[in-house]
Automatic annotation (TrEMBL), chain A:
Coiled coil: none annotated. Gene3D superfamilies: Transcription termination factor 3, mitochondrial. This is Transcription termination factor 3, mitochondrial. The gene is mterf3. InterPro entries: MTERF (IPR003690), MTERF_sf (IPR038538). Pfam families: mTERF. One of its GO terms (molecular function) is nucleic acid binding. The keyword Cytoplasm does not apply. GO terms for biological process: mitochondrial ribosome assembly; mitochondrial transcription; regulation of DNA-templated transcription. Residues 1-17 form the signal peptide. Belongs to the mTERF family. It comes from Lates calcarifer. Its main location: mitochondrion. GO terms for cellular component: mitochondrion.
TrEMBL record, chain B:
Residues 296-306 have a biased composition (Basic and acidic residues). This is TruB pseudouridine (psi) synthase family member 2. Transmembrane segments: none annotated. Residues 285-310 are annotated as: Disordered. Residues 86-229 form the Pseudouridine synthase II N-terminal domain. One of its GO terms (molecular function) is pseudouridine synthase activity. It comes from Lates calcarifer (Barramundi).
């Protein structure tokens, strides 16, 4: 019985500590933290005292008991204090029940030992009682060990650094590869992540992502860019995935789309439907072609449609492309739909007016619309300087546009320009 | 590793790009290079985990298991990259339209940059002109205001105009230096080539030379002090007026900025941390070789044209002779 008593106490202590830890990680409210700090101060005093007791010695058991019983009372008292404040400040019923459960267990344990001297222990539920405990109280090794002194966690902080060691959610996220530093820059995301419970909130959604086929290495990337996926309702996530599959996207495609556009599953089915319809209608594409474009650039479904509409108008009116040409360009290089209008016009102006490339050639090689202006400019001027700027396929010495823009520098110099890389760099300095 | 990045280097700024974009781009690339270096591993924290149900058999026999756990609060994903901000300063600015050598300084180099620009640094620009029209902002992209013929312009007329401009500017050079022209001090300073404006002054062109003349285009090499690109374009306009025609500026390219020449400039493809570090090392070693002293104003005084940079004795003589010649016969015929 004496051994069991100690065991119970140890488990009670550890469970109490665990519970408090959990509460602490869940609710970083100032009041809770102050009580915790208060209680840690009390325990500080207690751990200072070294204790040497022999458990199996009968006499010392009683003496130990004598000394440790106030400890048990104090535990109960602390629990009382904690529960008192928790009753005042916590809103959830469930937590109260848990406390009451603990209390009843503690009561049972305390009453088991008949030799409980009730001497200087005060039972009133006020915080001042805690301060009266003597710091020179002797306790056993087990108590010293079980009373772990947690580092002071600031009640509010600008960085998640202070909480990451204590919070299970945060440490697991870091181990997954989530960039917490980037996330804490965003307003309110840090507090949201702290409030999540790993087993209840985070784990089911991670399993869901794995279930639809997202690779584990990408999960960190997805959460870094879209932490709100951890607060989405599981049923709606499933509904959206089902909708995409009903539109005949294969599961691997869906998985890759989610990996590349992390916000995809945050949008409602209606919105996704709206967008798919828009692209199919505007570009007059068949269903399989639309699927192709969306699969390659899933963020088309995430962003707003206004810039895309404007880009299409620009292509039609300002740049002068016909509808089938626009279709072909969008199918080959979907990025043109989300490109910056001004840069697109500048690039097109250079290609069409300075390099004298006609529309049909640009349509044949739409990659030129995807490059950086400076790159095209310096390469074209270099070729012009060498007298090789010939883009018409009918004439000799023809240079194809896609090779012009997509080749890396060394190959461009050796194959197209037939000059050395150093010459190219020297020429750039003369521009 | 950060030490190696501190210093001065120059890049070639392409035209059409604002200098601030260039500076930001370089800063990002340098930060990327610095952060990519392998950082220290996550420091370990020692934690004691109590074993459940352990009874103390002996006084010191506490059964605890020691675990060394990495302290996740120091993990780079939680603290962010090691270097988050670099101080990159820009030398004399180039506006968006012009291209050329742009001096940048990192970290401690910024102080050197300040000193460098307080002394008189000459810059050499190549200015490209097109005859026949005049625009409102003096460049070929502005709104055309006037058109004129240019068939009557020949090379020697151009040279005459340039020499006249140079002479006028040399005079103003003497005027802006706060020294009485008749004193011995002035003579000694002129001999050493120290005569020049102190601090801020109007832009002065110390040398003008025509490099290429193919009507309607021609190119001029300009050495100047305290100038802005807009002033250079205005000069183009004035040259056109002097020639009884009009001219616009097609481009301005800075080929030299003090000790930094076009050869040392890094083009866009070389804006990586390793290349920049190499350029800085090169600059530091060349500085040691030349015994470059910032405190003495002698070195960046009146630089000659690009060919004669290394031979200091030679160029002092040349400058004095220039001054003497120009003073005696203002405006060569």
């Amino acid at each position: 019985m004496p051994c069991s008593f100690f065991l119970c106490r140890v488990t009670m202590a550890s469970s109490c500590a665990q519970l408090c830890l959990k509460c602490r990680s869940l609710l970083c409210s100032k009041t809770v933290a102050t009580t915790w700090q208060h209680s840690t101060q009390v325990r500080h005093c207690r751990t200072v005292t070294p204790v040497i007791t022999k458990v199996l010695n009968g006499s010392s058991f009683f003496s130990g008991n004598h000394r440790t019983s106030p400890a048990s009372q104090r535990w109960k008292q602390q629990m009382f204090c904690y529960s008192e404040l928790s009753v005042k400040h916590l809103a959830t019923e469930a937590k109260e029940d848990k406390f009451k459960e603990e209390l009843s267990r503690a009561d049972v344990v305390a009453y088991k030992s008949p030799l409980l001297p009730v001497n200087e222990i005060q039972m009133p539920l006020d915080l001042d009682a805690a301060a009266e405990f003597s710091a020179l109280e002797e306790i056993t090794h087990e108590e010293a060990v079980s009373i772990s002194v947690p580092a002071a966690i600031p009640p509010s902080s600008t960085s998640l650094r202070d909480y990451v060691d204590k919070s299970e959610t945060l440490s697991k996220l870091v181990q997954l590869g989530v960039n917490l530093w980037k996330l804490e820059q965003r307003p309110n995301v840090g507090t949201m992540l702290l409030k999540l419970d790993f087993n209840m909130d985070v784990a089911p959604r991670l399993l869901f992502l794995k279930h639809i086929g997202v690779e584990e290495s990408h999960i960190g990337y997805i959460i870094t860019h879209n932490p709100f996926i951890l607060t989405e309702d599981l049923e709606s996530l499933q509904a959206r995935v089902n909708y995409l599959k009903s539109k005949k996207f294969s599961s691997e495609t869906v998985a890759s789309m989610v990996s590349r556009a992390p916000y995809l599953l945050n949008f409602s089915v209606k919105r996704l439907d709206n967008r798919l319809g828009f692209y199919q209608q505007q570009l007059n594409l068949s269903a399989s072609n639309t699927r192709n474009i969306i699969a390659r650039l899933p963020r088309l479904l995430c962003g707003s449609l206004e810039p895309v509409k404007e880009n299409l108008k620009v292509c039609e009116i300002e740049l002068g492309f016909k509808e089938n040409e626009i279709q072909h360009i969008a199918l080959t290089v979907p990025k043109v739909l989300t490109a910056n209008k001004r840069k697109l016009t500048q690039l097109f102006d250079f290609i069409h007016n300075t390099m004298k490339v006609p529309h049909h050639l640009i349509t044949k090689f739409p990659q030129v619309l995807n490059t950086k202006y400076l790159r095209v400019r310096e390469r074209h001027l270099f070729l012009e300087f060498l007298g090789k700027a010939q883009y018409d396929p009918d004439l000799p010495n023809y240079i194809s546009l896609d090779r012009l823009v997509s080749l890396p520098d060394e190959i461009f110099c050796t194959e197209l320009a037939l000059a050395t890389l150093e010459d190219f760099y020297l020429f750039q300095k003369t521009l | 590793m950060f030490r190696r990045v501190e210093g001065l280097f120059c890049v070639y700024k392409p035209s059409g790009v604002h200098w601030k974009l260039v500076r930001d781009n370089i800063e990002t690339k340098l930060l990327k290079g610095l952060n990519a270096a392998p950082s220290q591993p996550c420091p370990q924290e020692v934690r004691f985990l109590a074993q459940p149900g352990g009874d103390a058999e002996a006084p010191k026999g506490l059964t605890l298991s020691v675990a060394s756990v990495p302290a996740l609060s120091k993990h780079p994903l939680v603290t962010g990259p090691e270097f988050q901000y670099l101080q990159v300063g820009v030398g004399h600015r180039l506006d968006a339209f012009s291209s050329g050598v742009l001096v940048l300084a990192v970290g401690n180099g910024n102080k050197i940059l300040n000193d460098l620009y307080r002394t008189r640094i000459t810059r050499v620009h190549l200015v490209f002109h097109c005859l026949g029209s005049a625009t409102d902002d003096f460049s070929h992209m502005g709104h055309v205001v006037e058109r004129s013929t240019y068939g009557h312009i020949t090379q020697d007329k151009l040279d005459r105009v340039l020499a006249m401009l140079q002479g006028a500017n040399q005079k103003s050079l003497l005027m802006y230096s706060n020294v009485d022209m008749r004193s011995q001090e002035a003579y000694e300073m002129a001999v050493q080539g120290l005569l020049g404006p102190d601090g801020k002054s109007a832009p002065i062109l110390t040398g003008l030379r025509c490099i290429r003349f193919e009507p309607p285009n021609f190119t001029i090499e300009v050495q100047c002090l305290n100038e802005t690109q807009k002033y250079l374009r205005k000069v183009v306009h004035e040259i056109g007026l002097e020639l009884r025609s009009t001219a616009v500026c097609k481009g301005v390219r800075r080929t030299r900025d003090g000790p930094f020449t076009l050869q040392d400039a890094l083009t866009r493809h070389h804006w990586t941390a390793s290349d920049i570090m190499q350029a800085i090392q090169q600059y530091k070693s060349s500085k040691k070789n030349k015994n470059y002293s910032r405190s003495k104003v002698k070195e960046p005084g009146l630089h000659p044209l690009e060919e004669n940079t290394t031979d200091s004795q030679h160029f002092y003589l040349k400058d004095v002779s220039d001054i003497v010649l120009n003073q005696s016969s203002p405006g060569q015929q």
